[in-house]
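Look at one record.

>
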Amino acid sequence: MGGSSFSSPLMQASSIATAVTVFFGFFLDGAESLTTHPSEARAINSVFKKWGISAKPNIWNISGEPCSGEAINNAASLLDRKYNPFIKCDCSNDETCHITGLMVNELVVGEIPEELWNLTYLSHLNLNYNHLTGSLSPAVGNLTRMKYLVLGFNALSGELPKELGNLTELLSLGLGKTNFSGSIPSELGNLVKLKKLHIDSSGLSGQIPPTFANLINLERVWASDVELTGKIPDFIGNWSKLTLLKLQGNSFEGKIPSSFSNLKSLTDLDLSFNSITGQIPESLFNLSSLSSLFLGNNKLSRPIPTQISQSLLNIDLSYNNLSGRLPSWPN
């Protein structure tokens, strides 16, 4: 029967099993044998299917494995738009890869799928510049490993869920240029590691919650055109690491807190287009790091301070009720 061409059923089964193992195992040698955690693979595939997008060929998701290619390349960055859309994975446990980063920009129209909140190993999520609609689910609170959350430049609406306060590892929160409504949840005061807060033109309103006194690690705050009301809180003077504070275009009233004299690291301060009254604290003109001071279009009155720090290069006090002249800049 031509024994050289004969193969037993056992041999055939062995060959098929080997082929199946190689195909579904996605390269079995070394680090490339790692696979994405099954629940996370299902979640990311479902999210991309609902959004009608897919990974770029030969970049990641190679052979149907999400954590492959550039997704496991430490040199590849979520900030590099050439990979958009892109995920990053952590395979350090030598058995299973977890999806830790997701970037999708300028690609999506529609709501955020609920499956996204199952990616609980995410530490970076950047969904800027899409046309996302609907509300932000309370399930966002599941992402307790999150460090960088950026949802700006979208049409997201509704009130911010208080569950955002669960993200206590958060370093940066970007919600600017959105259509949210209601007040800032007091639970955001739990984000004590937060360094950057961007809520410009987000639709939020009301007073800055007293719990924000806890946010002493803030370095940069953009909160312009948000209809914030009441007095500017004194506790902002305890945000000693603050380098930039922009609160223009709100409805603040009352005086500029004298505690601002403690903001020794502040380089940019913009409180213009509010209803702030009283005298400008002379200490603002003598903060050693302050280079830009914008207080125009308020109801400030009384004499202008007579001393100006050498660091202060840009000043706008227009459209107030001030008296006196601005002193000459020191040589």
